[in-house]
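Schema walk-through. Below, the input block comes first and the output block second. Nothing else is stored per chain. Lengths vary across the set, and this one has 86 residues.
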Amino acid sequence: MKLDIPVWDRPDILESFESERERRHISTPRLTYDCFNAKCKGTDDKVRCSKGHTLYALSPDGSLSVNSVLRGRTAKICKTCEDFNG
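--- output ---
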């Protein structure tokens, strides 16, 4: 879903993302959202790992979209990462 306005200006969407994240947390205790190494810098709406891990191999820069992280998507690396800090 491509949004014309930032998600933080839409409480209804943020609540929906939080509900999805809570559901995913049940089956996946380590979400990318929970790791302090997951950083969103600038205005490109991409989340990258500050430790240099590739979060999404199909992305040219290895990043995940901020909306997918807010929804509770987790990178495979985060599930077993020794650098996970959450």
